[in-house]
Peptide chain release factor 3
Amino acid sequence: MRDTIPNRPDLPAEIARRRTFAIISHPDAGKTTLTEKFLLYGGAIQMAGQVRAKGEARRTRSDFMQMEKDRGISVSASAMSFDFGEFRFNLVDTPGHADFSEDTYRTLTAVDAAVMVIDGAKGVESQTQKLFEVCRLRDLPILTFCNKMDRESRDTFEIIDEIQENLAIDVTPASWPIGMGRDFLGCYDMLHDRLDLMDRADRNRVATSIRVEGLDDPELDRHIPAHLLEKLREEVELARGLLPVLDPQAVLEGHMTPIWFGSAINSFGVRELMEGVSTYAPEPQPQSAEPRQISPEEPKVSGFVFKVQANMDPRHRDRVAFVRLASGHFARGMKLTHVRSGKTMTVASPVLFLAADRELAEEAWAGDIIGIPNHGQLRIGDTLTEGEALRVTGIPSFAPELLQSVRANDPLKSKHLEKALMQFAEEGAAKVFKPLIGSGYIVGVVGQLQFEVLASRIGLEYGLPVRFEPTQFTSARWASGERRALDRFVESNRQHIAHDHDGDVVYLTRLQWDIDRVVRDCPEIALAATKEMQ
Ligand code: GDP
């Protein structure tokens, strides 16, 4: 099947075998369970339950983590690497909660494909839809897993129709479910004409596959009750007549998604999905950058920071920058140029996220994610190269949807507060704006919960109790234009102007009407809801 995909013979085998992807879903659809099964099949963990157990051990470490646990959400995202057959999978975890979507968006700039998990009873939910739209902006190939087929779920055609209509993408069935809920037996593998039966007794066992010669094979009668078999034959015939056949090129271009049906908790359908990722998700793709695109097979190493996480280990005040390698073969101890500052850094202790634990990365290839511990030099959007002045593009920063002012309870500690806020701004955890008029800072986030997380982290990490309070502003837009025009704009709108942590001009307001007015009356000024990280 691979030879139907445009192959790139010049790609070194180590790069060609890499699949870097994320799982997107609405909370509760089964992302954690599926991730765990991926690791189990990849031999990275011995027993299901370890990911969650480990997560819980980590969460009890601090009050902040306690809050995370209480809310039942996962604030931190990470990357996991494991082998599946001849392939190396790099699964980049995305936080599922809507309040952390900006982080998720940026994570999606570091992957070449996404697996979309939907709940068979609920179909396409709001967060799935939002994340899908982001994948679409980047034309990311998407493979779909319809989970929880062991429960009462919707009719198969209905699920497929809903995806096609809500997401405007062609859907092609890679497997077809037999029965549902209590009667769910397994799937007919439409790609390999195979019968896959689910073993309800053992949740951690791979399904039994029975090879059949099409839907008329008498072998089917031995395993499927007559009424379900009749329904299966009818439905598959109908599906083959009505639904598009799998076109690997259309999948790569993001116009078509193959769908597998299964039950993550019962380990059913997972291996087929993983085989699907190996076959239909692409190898590491070229990266857009200025002044030129970067190809993965280039011998020189380059990469970019898509996430920064502080205090992963409370005992060390380090930060880890998550770097997606865009090209080359990286070896530990390499000297890389930090393009933004022009400085050289020796990457002495890079971390590879081998499933269960952080390990020192001796080597890594294009497509891999490595963690680089640092003291704040590395920011989201930064590019690292072996000397060439390249700048990776397309890593967005979104205008916050909620704005509040922040104050230290002790006014003498405002310098400390400033330091904490700068750290969070650089980490990408919040937008920090310094208004032109008055003192203090305005913090912008995408979801309300982030204010609580920030207050809790500032308290814990800086020993600084703070208060968030409402401001008169509800929207922020980055303003740009020719220097003199921008100065004039700033002068005549002083009460609306602030600077972000990079010093860029931001226009704050409460009214959409104000924004429309600027657009109408100041054609020389551009207002933007997103900014490229730099
Ligand atoms: P996440 O929020 O997307 O990470 O979802 P989780 O993996 O935590 O799953 C949410 C809930 O659904 C948990 O209680 C799981 O045990 C349950 N679940 C996950 N997969 C399945 C499945 O295939 N069948 C059933 N019946 N429940 C499942």
Remarks:
- The pocket of guanosine-5'-diphosphate is lined by residues 25, 27-33, 96, 147-148, 150-151, 263-266 (CB under 6 Å).
- The chain has 15 helices and 33 strands.
- Confidence is low (pLDDT under 50) at residues 1-6, 48-77.
